[in-house]
Amino acid sequence: MENNPNIETENIKIELDGKKVRINDVLRITQDEKLKNLERLSLRYNNLGNDSAMLIGSNNTWSKLKELYLSVNQIGDDGASAIGNNLTWVNLIDLRLAVCQIGDKGAVCIGNNTAWKNLRTLSLGNNKIGDKGAEAIGRNTVWTNLEELFLQSNQIGNSGCIAIGKNTSWSKLKKLELQMNQIGDEGAIAIGENSTWKNLEELLLNHNQIQDNGARAIGKNTTWSNLKRLEFSANKIEAEGGKALGSNATWSNLREFGINENHIGDQGAISLGGNPSWGNLEVIWLNSNEIGNEGAGALGRNTAWTNLVELRLSSNNISAKGAEIIASNTSWKKLKVLSLRANEISDEGCAAIAKNSGWVHLEEVYLQRNNIADLGAKEIGNNIFWEKLKRLDLSENMISNEGIVTMAMNKVWVQIEELGLSSNLIGYKGVCQLGQNTSWKKLRRLTLSHNSRIKREEQNALKSNLLFGDKLCIEGY
């Protein structure tokens, strides 16, 4: 590490991420008197152990330190405890300790720190922190300037989450990440009842154990008027919880809402679709929620989401009727991504989607596994509105050469980069027709795997066809 150009003594910053820094290097840094005005120390991705972290934590000369980045090391509890016990870094603004094998012992010491009154960002994601550590963090009353708290992928349950939810000192908090923990209704209720976080913009609670009561409490929150992103995917929320969330009128600034892999059903979707307050909504993820035509219809009739860019409804129970109502929407003029994968929209629903003339900004369309045959494929091929289309996936349907011939003549999709047609009934003739299209100059991947009507010798011939080059993926029967 001698004469390392990444050490700038003039600007008092040390940037040594992934530079194979060892404990002797850390020792030299901590003992170097020329670095007493150090403002930033970044040693991420160095496989440093607890001894190195203890050396850093025991430093009592870096009174101007503002940023300490030690993520993706093997700091452990002893190293984290030494850092948490440091009372010299009174100007610390940003502390990053993600993926460092820190458990409750280390988290308690960090939570008990009384010197970091200027702390704005604390990152402790992907560690081994449980309720005791989270409780200590939640009880901290010194971090009145805290804006971002990352505790994702730990072992935090209800009691830890309750302590966080009851914190009344973090009035400037903007981002709270608690996804991939063990939080249930009690913890979610505490979060929902918090009235201090008036500046909260992002709340991530996906991959927990939250049910309707927790979702209902959060849905009733009237404090978070600045909320922009809310994630609930992979919990246990059913219709009542979905209805409560969808009924919230406070989150008028909400941009992203994710509730994939729950059970909100039609009633939850009806509530969401009928919400008139989320006029700034850009992204909504509703995959795997047992939503049928009634719920899809309510979503399709929504006129408030004029800024909607991305709608995902994969793996639900939507048939042609629901798809037709979605396709009739004239308010989503900014829509770029539409996913209805693994539903039952069939030819009729596919045709309705293809005929929508308002989605001129559409870039990605996912219609795999929908019982779409040649009629639907023909309507898609006849589409003249999707000039910006980049990705179209019609895999796992029942499309044969007849539908592909029409699609192959499309001259509008000049931006298309990926076309998925795997697991259909396409034969050699259909593929050859695709190869003759001269408008898709940006196409870089054409997937035709598992089309059993293409014989082995025909596969070999297609691979050698210069029209396809290395774009074609055709392996499998």
Q: How is the main sheet built?
A: 19 strands, mixed
Low-pLDDT residue intervals, each spanning 5 or more residues: none
Shape: globular
The end-to-end distance, rounded to whole angstroms, is 55 Å
User: Architecture of the domain at 1-129, CATH level 2?
Assistant: Alpha-Beta Horseshoe
Main structural class: alpha/beta
| DSSP strand count | 19
Average pLDDT confidence is: 94
CATH homologous superfamily identity of the domain at 1-129? Ribonuclease Inhibitor
Indicate the CATH topology of the domain at 1-129. Answer: Leucine-rich repeat, LRR (right-handed beta-alpha superhelix)
Range of strand content: 5-15%
Radius of gyration: 27 Å
Q: Give helix % range.
A: 25-40%
Please report the first level of CATH classification, the CATH class of the domain at 1-129: Alpha Beta
Supply the number of helical segments.
Answer: 17
Describe this structure as you would to a colleague.
By secondary structure, the chain is α/β, with parallel strands linked by helices. The protein has a domain at 1-129: Leucine-rich repeat, LRR (right-handed beta-alpha superhelix) (Alpha-Beta Horseshoe), CATH 3.80.10.10. It contains 17 helices and 19 strands. It has a 19-stranded mixed β-sheet, with no helix packed on it. Helix 1 (23-31) links the parallel strand 2 (13-15) and strand 3. Helix 5 (131-138) packs parallel to helix 6 and helix 14 (374-381) runs parallel beside helix 15. The radius of gyration is 27 Å and the shape is globular. It starts with 6 loop residues before the first strand and ends with a strand.
